[in-house]
Amino acid sequence: MMDEKNTNTDELKEIPELFPDMDKETEENNAQSAFAPAGAAPVKAAEPTNHKMTVAREAEHSLGMKKKGLIGSICKNTLLALLAAFWLIPILWLVVTAFSANPGISYTRFFPEKWTLANFSRVLFHPDSVLQYGRWFLNTLIIAIFSCAISTAFILMVSYAFSCMRFPGRQGMIRFSLILGMFPGVLSMIAVYFIMKSIGLTNSHIGMIVVYSAGSGLGYLIVKGFMDTIPVSMREAARIEGANELQIFFRVMMPLCKPIIVYQIISAFLAPWSDFVFARLMLNSGISKDWTVAIGLYNMLDKTLIHQNFAAFCAGGLIISIPISVLFIIMQKYYVEGVTSGSTKG
Fold first, then answer.
1. Is 44 inside a domain boundary?
2. CB 344 within 8 A of CB 135
3. Can you name the residues that pair with 115 across neighbouring β-strands?
4. What is the signed CA dihedral for 46, 47, 48, 51, rounded to 10 degrees?
5. How far is CA 330 from the centre of its chain?
6. Same structural domain for residues 190 and 72?
7. 343 with 259: CB under 8 angstroms?
8. At what angle do helices 205-214 and 258-274 cross, to 10 degrees?
9. Higher-scoring residue by pLDDT: 340, 315
């Protein structure tokens, strides 16, 4: 037993020799604690120099990351600025050309040598055999308004049926309509043309309205997603009060769906307003007074007419963009709200 005690004592004495720094720090802390006032917090041991080096490395690393982030941000913004310039320069050229006194294309100057409003005056108030802009504008407006109203009604009804009603085959119809929506509309152009020709609706504004609005119900997905976010309890409360489906649709759902209705109206109006492909296919009689703005402006760029009508073409393009731009600016708040709300659930 005595030998074991001596062995333990010798081992304890060897510990300070193995860790001299620890022993010195302990003595310094004890000395500082001895002179500390009563009730004072115990003195912490001094941080080792390794910690300071680690902090310095972290600061240097952070500074390097900030520099890399700044360089990356500059490169991204430069690229975006170049892309914006490539996109905006042609538009700017069309705008300034609309005010040019030269009726044709200028290949030597970007900005016109002389500025004038004569092109706008010719487009709006001086129709001729080539340029009947007022008639084209009226045709386009009629087609767009009726197509917009019918398409919006179809989509709202289809969305309400799929979102708020339960009936056999509902899921199958939703899947089938989604599959059909994956195919672009141009694939059906020839078939649509021959169907409309067989019933005598080619070269007709009524036929154009039918083409734009007949298949619009397949575009129900975003509106349905918005309706899915409306609590079911509101419809159930209306049913308890004795409301039928038609009353629930008009008095409960429609007021709550105002943002998505605005989105749908703008989308449905924009499609026929700016369309060229279907309009060119359907209105092919060559009678100028039946054309839409898109067809009329396109024919102004014929190689025999472009040098006398290009400035007027630019003026007509600016005028046709004004109504939809004003409509979008006025309803922008509801448009954005409708898009974001309708995409959260589908």
1. no
2. no
3. 100
4. -170
5. 17
6. no
7. no
8. 130
9. 315
Residues 69 and 177 both lie in one domain: no
Co-location of 186 and 314 in the same domain: yes
CB of 116 closer than 8 Å to CB of 99: yes
Same domain, 57 and 175: no
Whether residue 249 is contained in a domain is answered as: yes
Q: Confirm whether pTM is higher than 0.85.
A: no
Give the range of the structural domain holding residue 302, as residue numbers without chain letter: 131-342
Where does a domain end: 38, 67, 89?
A: 89
> Residue 197 sits in a domain of what CATH number?
1.10.3720.10
CB atoms within 10 A of CB 151: 25
Cβ-contact 263, 338 below 8 angstroms: yes
Distance in angstroms (rounded) separating the CA atoms of residues 236 and 243: 9
173, two tokens? 């119809």
Verify that 250 and 308 share a domain, yes or no. Answer: yes
| 5 part of a folded domain | no
- The answer to whether residue 143 scores a pLDDT higher than 90 is yes
- 315 with 189, same domain: the answer is yes
Q: Are residues 58 and 149 in the same domain?
A: no
The residues near 178 (Cβ < 8 Å, ≥ 6 apart) are 221
| 194 and 330 share one domain | yes
Statement: residue 30 has pLDDT above 60: no
- Rounded CA-CA distance 120/122 in Å is 5
Ramachandran quadrant class, 200 (left: phi over 0; alpha: psi -120 to 50; beta: rest) = left
Residue 25 resides in a domain:
no
Token pair of 111, please? 């900005």
Hey, how many other C-beta atoms are within 10 angstroms of the C-beta on 221? 18
Asked whether the beta carbons of 118 and 103 are under 8 A apart, the reply is no
Taking the C-alpha atoms of residue 15 and residue 21, their distance in angstroms, rounded to an integer, is 11
Write down the residue that tokens 């609309």 correspond to: 98
CA distance 97 to 112: 7
What is Dmax (Cα atoms) for the chain?
Answer: 128
The structural domain count of the chain equals: 2
Between the CA of residue 98 and those of 92, 111, 114, 116, 213, what are the distances in Å? 10, 10, 11, 8, 34
Q: pLDDT tens across 39-67, in order?
A: 444 544 445 566 666 766 777 767 767 77
